[in-house]
Automatic annotation (TrEMBL):
Keywords: Disulfide bond, Secreted. The keyword Isomerase does not apply. InterPro entries: A-macroglobulin_rcpt-bd, A-macroglobulin_rcpt-bd_sf, A2M/Complement_sys, Netrin_domain, Netrin_module_non-TIMP, TIMP-like_OB-fold. This is NTR domain-containing protein. The keyword Lipoprotein does not apply.
Length: 355
């Protein structure tokens, strides 16, 4: 979460629980990263509802039926909303917290009603309007105070964009704090990569990145070929250049340009110059640096990108090796290792596995 207009007032929103995701992990949400940068206008994607709008006759609304208890528990998240203010600021009294819910969720009305009936209540009443939940506080404390309510996911969603929240004085709305908050980072179905109606589990071990000309491996002749042809016996092999890295839901996506096709099985259209996407769980340490080149081998994935090309999930059955620079290979110390790498690339691309 990132504070933007917050000087006198502060609000913090966190979400815990399970979020179910569908759709492609590399679906192009062009504005996703802009949420972290658009500090001057945090409310632009979903502008907060003003109290005047709510008092103009929009108090009577019907809620959808609440899902059955078992289903509700499966798709429920818990919102925690914390507010406080600068002790030197004199407010008129009532303040409003406007929380835009994450896509596909609605707040549990029973939880909101409980907030207004607590003996030490901070919330005098609440309003709901579309994705907005408005909590009316009698006052804003100088120390951090928090309230909570549940929300239920009505439909699985794709890549959840951050949502906005705002706290402002009811009579002096120029006193305002606007922030963004995101979906839980450890959702039950977060590490499932899907495209169309096919999903691939991504809960295996993280991949290991091998540095260029890893020490101690030169003497072990044929170790790359053993990985490619014996265990785990890979289904694709590419020499690629990384173009960019991007965050996609629970994954990091690396868009690459193919420099050389070494081996393929189902990716029959792969040729030099084409782009292919490689994904890794965001919880893994692997980072491929844009501008650098890598040898990547592994098992075919079950999903496709938006262009219809296979996309590849990197895990413990993947070989990721940074390609050495020309300068490094010119050094006397590394000539033998570079020659061994070149021999592998030549042999594997022309002869494949001779087993």
């Amino acid at each position: 979460m990132k504070n933007t207009t917050c000087q006198e007032l502060q609000i913090e929103v966190t979400v815990m629980g399970h979020v179910e995701y569908t759709m492609e992990a590399n679906e192009d949400y062009e504005d996703y990263e802009d949420y972290e940068l658009a500090s001057d206008d945090p409310g632009a994607p979903t502008p907060p509802v003003t109290p005047l709008q709510l008092f103009e006759g929009r108090r009577s609304r019907r809620r959808r039926e609440v899902p059955k208890v078992a289903e509700e528990q499966e798709s429920r998240v818990q919102y925690t909303v914390c507010i406080w203010r600068n002790g030197k600021l004199g407010l008129s009294g009532m303040a409003i917290a406007d929380i835009t819910l994450l896509s596909g969720f609605h707040a549990l009305r029973a939880d909101l009603e409980k907030l207004t009936s607590l003996s030490d209540r901070y919330v005098s009443h609440f309003e709901t309007e579309g994705p907005h939940v408005l909590l009316y506080f009698d006052s804003v404390p100088t120390s951090r105070e928090c309230v909570g309510f549940g929300a239920v996911q009505e439909v699985p969603v794709g890549l959840v964009q951050p949502a906005s929240a705002a706290l402002y004085d009811y009579y002096n709305p120029e006193y305002k704090c606007s922030v963004f908050y995101g979906a839980p980072t450890k959702s039950k179905l977060l590490s499932t990569l899907c495209s169309a109606d096919v999903c691939q589990c991504a809960e295996g071990k993280c991949p290991r990145q091998r540095r260029a000309l890893e020490r101690g491996r030169v003497e072990e002749d044929g170790y790359r070929m053993k990985f490619a042809c014996y265990y785990p016996r890979v289904e694709y092999g590419f020499h690629v250049k990384v173009l960019r890295e991007d965050a996609r839901a629970a994954f990091r996506l690396f868009e690459t340009s193919i420099t050389q096709v070494l081996h393929f099985s189902k990716d029959t259209q792969a040729t030099a110059g084409q782009t292919r996407n490689f994904l890794v769980r965001a919880s893994c340490r692997l980072h491929l640096e844009p501008g650098k080149e890598y040898l990547i081998m592994g098992l075919d994935g079950a999903t496709y990108d938006l262009k219809g090309h296979p996309q590849y999930l990197l895990d413990s059955n993947s070989w990721i090796e940074e390609m050495p620079s020309e300068r490094l290979c010119q050094s006397t110390r590394q000539r033998a290792a570079c020659a061994q790498l070149r021999d592998f690339l030549q042999e594997y691309s022309t002869q494949g596995c001779q087993v």
